[in-house]
Design goal:
The chain is an alpha/beta fold and 402 residues long. The protein has 13 helices and eight strands. An eight-stranded mixed sheet has the order 3-2-1-4-5-6-7-8, sandwiched between helices. α1 packs parallel to α4, α5 packs parallel to α6 and α10 crosses α13. The protein binds NADP nicotinamide-adenine-dinucleotide phosphate. Belongs to the short-chain dehydrogenases/reductases (SDR) family.
């Protein structure tokens, strides 16, 4: 359907485009503007070249009263910080698992801000606080989106990978395997039959890595969010991480396993570091680099969601106010607000300073040694063999899915 050919409509359309420009939707297409006079008017009034809209939208907008359009323009001009800057195609994708709240949210915010050319995909079970939208409106950008992922189910991780593939996003330049949970009480199992902490914090991410690998850019940067609790020498106050065997940790005997789920958590963080090293030993760095990151203690995040209401109150409402004092008093100062650790995670994952680093364990921005156990090659290999067999069924090469 061609646009009405009149100068009056041209002026109206120019106003539409100008309003859209203010709102920064200027790369919409107007394929049917053939009329020379109309075209010139659009450029003159809107200052937008090559600008176009889907014809149905354009036709409808051309007939929108001018005062409505001026109102749109004025409103958007009053709030310049709300302007969207959708001006270019994205060059790469960055995925942040658990990017909707806590540490992952602030890492995603920092990445989206520093790299507007990258599409940042937040992936967790729900985006109940509209994190993607919140980051976009805070930054006045539109490079953050949400894609639902449930790491506690093999079928759901595969479904995520399939959906991801169908989106035709640009190559993945960084993958932040950050989502994590704690189940502080008795052992629980997922519907797949694995110990819950093991599946969410380790196995789900290993499956995700495998199924996303066809979309990796050369040299993709993988960052695993670990924790100081993986290392007994750090005396974090959590029960010591204990690596028995992958098979045992995946399906512990409920009759003999400890009731203290916090130990399963610190062990799952040890698995993150070990699996990272196992990857580094097998994958050439030109293909992929893998580092681990300890954000330090960050009271106030959702990590304590399964704790008692008293403990949750302390975690959410008392400790966050004490961070500056606690920094001076405990844990060598390794206690932070999530915003601070999120900026550190973004730095580890994508900065120029950390480019090319491989097999490094970061505590904040510092390179430090990880636990003694994490370096034991036999344990890494046991974890690797069990995981790869579980992920691939022994029928394909890990990280080269058909
Ligand atoms: N807080 C600390 O003191 C601390 C210290 C050291 C390390 N860490 C690590 O930091 C990471 C982030 O934790 P946080 O403190 O920011 O906690 P958080 O606020 O609870 O964030 C956890 C994120 O993981 C997602 N998640 C949980 N279960 C999931 C599942 N089954 N599938 C997909 N996503 C899932 C959550 O979203 P949904 O629930 O909507 O799925 C959420 O986005 C974790 O790996 C944690 O181990 C935290």
């Amino acid at each position: 359907m061609p646009l009405p050919n009149s100068t009056e409509n041209a002026i109206n359309l120019a106003a539409v485009l100008s309003a859209l420009k203010t709102l920064a939707y200027q790369n919409y297409q107007v394929p049917a503007v053939h009329d020379e006079e109309l075209y010139k008017s659009i450029n003159k009034y809107s200052g937008i070249k090559y600008c176009s809209l889907p014809i149905e939208v354009a036709t409808r907008l051309v007939h929108t009263p001018r005062f409505v359009l001026s109102f749109v323009e004025t409103r958007s001009a009053i709030k310049p910080e709300k302007k969207l800057k959708r001006t270019m195609a994205f060059t790469h994708t960055v995925i942040v698992t658990g990017g909707t709240v806590g540490l992952g949210y602030y890492a995603a915010l920092n990445i989206a801000k520093a790299y507007p050319q990258y599409l940042v995909v937040l992936s967790s079970r729900t985006d109940r606080e509209s994190a993607a939208q919140k980051i976009n409106s805070t930054l006045g950008q539109d490079n953050v989106t949400f894609l639902a992922l449930d790491l506690s189910s093999i079928a759901k991780v595969k479904k995520y990978a399939k959906e991801y593939s169908s989106k035709k996003f640009p190559p993945i330049i960084a993958l932040l395997l950050n989502a994590g949970l704690q189940f502080p009480n008795e052992v629980t199992f997922t519907a797949d039959g694995f110990e819950s902490t093991f599946q969410v914090n380790h196995l789900g991410h290993a499956i995700l890595l495998h199924h996303l690998s066809p979309h990796f850019a050369p040299g993709v940067r993988v960052t695993l969010t670990a924790s100081g609790t993986h290392d007994p020498a750090q005396k974090s106050g959590m029960p010591d991480a204990i690596y028995t065997s992958a098979a045992d940790l995946a399906r512990p005997d409920p009759k003999t396993v400890t009731k203290d789920g916090r130990q399963r958590y610190s062990t799952s963080k040890l698995l993150n570091v070990m699996f990272g090293y196992a990857l580094v030993r097998r994958i050439p760095s030109e293909q992929m680099t893998v580092n681990s990151f300890d954000p330090g203690l960050m009271p106030g995040t959702g990590l304590a969601r399964e704790y008692s209401s008293f403990m949750r109150f302390i975690w959410n409402h008392v400790l966050p106010h004490l961070v500056p004092v606690l920094k001076l008093l405990v844990m060598d100062g390794n206690i932070h607000l999530p915003a601070e650790s999120g900026a550190n995670l973004a730095w580890v994952a994508l900065s120029k300073e950390t480019a090319g680093k491989n097999g490094v364990y970061y505590s904040g921005k510092k390179e430090i040694p990880s636990s003694i156990d994490s370096h034991i090659v036999e344990k890494q290999d046991d974890l690797w063999d069990w995981t790869v067999k579980e992920v691939t069924g022994g029928e394909e090469e890990y990280l080269s899915p058909k």
